[in-house]
What we know:
This protein is an alpha/beta fold. The protein folds into two domains: 3-116 and 240-280, FAD/NAD(P)-binding domain; 133-236, FAD/NAD(P)-binding domain (3-Layer(bba) Sandwich). It contains six helices and 19 strands. The protein has helices at residues 15-26, 61-74, 137-140, 156-166, 183-190, 245-249; strands at residues 3-11, 31-34, 48-49, 59-60, 78-80, 85-89, 95-99, 103-111, 115-117, 133-134, 148-152, 171-175, 195-198, 201-208, 213-220, 226-230, 233-236, 240-242, 273-275. The strands form five sheets. Strands 1, 2, 5, 6, 7, 8 and 19 form a seven-stranded mixed sheet that branches. It has a five-stranded parallel sheet with strand order 10-17-11-12-13, with helices on one face. It has a three-stranded antiparallel sheet with strand order 14-15-16, with no helix packed on it. A hairpin with a 5-residue loop joins strand 15 (213-220) and strand 16 (226-230). Helix 1 runs parallel beside helix 2.
Amino acid sequence: MTVEIYEVIILGGGVAGLTAGLYTARAGLKTLAVDRKALGGRLNEIPVILNFPGFPEGILGYELSQRMVAHAQRFGVELRYPEDVVAIEFKGEQKLVRTRTRVYQSDAVIVATGTQRRRLLVQGEAEYLGRGVSYCAVCDAPLIRDMRVAVVGYGDEAVDDVLLASDFANSVFLVFDREEIEAGKALKLRVKTNITLLPNSKVTMVEGDGVVVKSIRLLDVKTGTERSLPVEGVFIALGVVPMTELTKNAGVEVDERGCIKVTRRQHTNIEGVYAAGDCTCG
């Protein structure tokens, strides 16, 4: 198999990867970016972005991602997608990246593989994404004014999402499958009169009318009974998982969360290997 040689290889074609490629290509370095999915990363999951400077009327997430792709291509970034990286070798001065059909070699690698949202994996979740289901309360909370919404999760992210949503929605339900929430978190939530805690509850289905969300099905994990909770929005706040397994197997150090450890200048523990974006959890 022929080895294709570059000066910089970027693993990941999301916002961090495309931005890194823009800078390395403009610096005159022969640059390749590889992604296993469509370029643009999680931008493609956001229907409309209303808080990105320069777009007062908002911009579709996919449209913004494609503008970033075009910007990187204009300055010479070569893009390969969808292309699965199956092996990485960082042992020597030259770094090797293997996909199912090609082998790439470079002096430097920038890891920008991002994170993956933890999902409910229930019926209706994917169907109503952008039509009531959201993974980003900061992005979409202003759209739920005077609605009934649910936030699914237990950790700090879920608590923050509930508090934010309560500033806009009529009623906010925090759905979690444990007996109780930590005292400090509960105290924060009880200050707001439009927040209801639903412990011992697990979402089994997101229900809608084919256009938008209308309710969620809840299973009581203690009694085994199910009921339907009418809501018009569902924020899923289960956290994220860094996509770092391959690079970790190649010797790149990660922390207990799986996030790549970097210096202030984005160096990893391996000479010539850098990391940027959400995979560093920075």
